[in-house]
Design goal:
Largest sheet: none
Radius of gyration: 16 Å
Number of strands: 0
Shape: elongated
Helix content: 55-70%
Structural class: mainly alpha
Oligomer: single chain
Pfam family, one: UPF0175
InterPro entries: UPF0175, UPF0175_domain
Number of domains: 1
Distance between the termini: 37 Å
Family: Belongs to the UPF0175 family.
Length: 84
């Protein structure tokens, strides 16, 4: 499934970025917003933003958005690290 959003020209022209950067900036903002609201996982949000793990983590840090990391995920990571 693929989705295309229609953004009016008046909105696009109001965005204060060079035209070639608008699409990428909008993808970043959407990925950040969906991740912050816990509507997308870190992996899917970084995929939407078209960034690697490090880059997306840095972007979240710049925006003061905490990584979602549950105790269950911590336990899984600790089990994996200890070879269990």
């Amino acid at each position: 499934m693929s989705l295309q959003l229609s953004i009016p020209d008046s909105i696009l022209s109001a965005i204060r970025l060079p035209e070639p950067r608008i699409e990428q900036a909008l993808l970043h903002e959407l990925a950040i917003a969906l991740y912050a609201q816990e509507l997308l996982s870190f992996g899917k949000a970084r995929e939407l933003a078209q960034m690697d793990k490090y880059e997306f983590g840095q972007l979240l840090g710049q925006r003061s958005i905490s990584r979602h990391y549950s105790l269950e995920e911590l336990s899984d990571d600790l089990d994996y690290a200890s070879g269990e």
